[in-house]
Design a protein that fits this description.
Elements lengths: L2 H13 L2 H30 L3
């Protein structure tokens, strides 16, 4: 089974399970918040150099 086939099968399982959808959504939200926080920290660092 290829990686693409494995991903497709996993996605199909997630889409049919509301609990898994919620877990995935929570994980994506946490990752986006962390990325935004890091971006804001980097942006503040650049502003202080001017």
């Amino acid at each position: 089974m290829t990686k693409s086939q494995i991903n497709s099968k996993l996605l199909e399982q997630i889409l049919h399970d509301s609990f898994l959808i919620e877990q995935l959504s929570d994980r994506v939200y946490k990752l986006l918040r962390e990325d935004l926080r890091k971006h804001q920290e980097r942006s503040q660092g650049y502003g202080s150099r001017i």
